[in-house]
Design goal:
This protein is mainly α and about 190 residues long. Helices cover about 50% and strands about 0% of the residues. It has a two-stranded antiparallel sheet with strand order 1-2. The model has no long low-confidence stretch (mean pLDDT about 95). It holds the Pfam family MDMPI_N.
């Protein structure tokens, strides 16, 4: 089942996050990920918390009931269920947003963006964390060159100030013309994993 939020990159990214969460083997929850300090369960709990945060900012509703930046490392069936609820809430919230809106509330400083940039910020979070988990469990990358180009164009508009808060690592040097590798390096990840 695909999402239909009105933002194509977001639909693809939310689907990717949900699919990779459902594909985690029972013995893989504690595997390391490209997010050096978090295992698979922590990355997915963090990503779910972020999606709940976007939904809450858009709707004025309840955000996550846990700290997405200090996620539990405990895995199990509740993790894919949490991701499913979070991406569904995010998709529902974004579906109610006019894609041409000049300002929407988002949990990313400066806490207001155009609807398209805000949706891309939300998509970036989902897609990159889906990639983190895919790498950890040996699945194909959910990032396509087209999606990576769009998300990188958005990322350069808001990522730099977030590095100071530890939300993103420093960019990894290198350039080879591969849009997926360029996005990953920009976000502080090694594309060779």
């Amino acid at each position: 089942m695909g999402f239909a939020t009105g933002f194509a990159s977001l639909d693809v990214s939310l689907d990717a996050l949900r699919e990779v969460a459902a594909a985690v083997p029972a013995d893989a929850w504690d595997r390391p990920t490209p997010c050096a300090r978090w295992n698979v369960a922590q990355v997915l709990r963090h990503a779910a918390g972020d999606q709940l945060g976007f939904a809450a900012f858009l709707t004025g509703g309840q955000g996550p009931d846990f700290d997405p930046f200090d996620p539990s490392g405990e895995g199990g069936a509740d993790v894919p269920a949490l991701v499913e609820r979070a991406v569904a809430a995010s998709a529902e919230a974004w579906a109610a947003v006019d894609p041409e809106a000049a300002k929407v509330a988002v949990p990313v400083p400066p806490n207001e963006m155009t609807a398209r940039l805000g949706a891309d910020a939300c998509a970036l979070d989902a897609a990159v964390h889906a990639w983190d988990v895919a790498v950890a469990i040996g699945r194909p990358s959910p990032l396509t060159p087209e999606l990576a180009r769009e998300l990188k164009a958005a990322a350069v508009q808001f990522v730099e100030p977030l590095r100071a808060y530890g939300a993103y690592a420093d960019a990894v040097p290198g350039e080879d013309g591969d849009p997926v590798a360029d996005l990953l390096r920009y976000l502080g990840r090694s594309p060779s994993l």
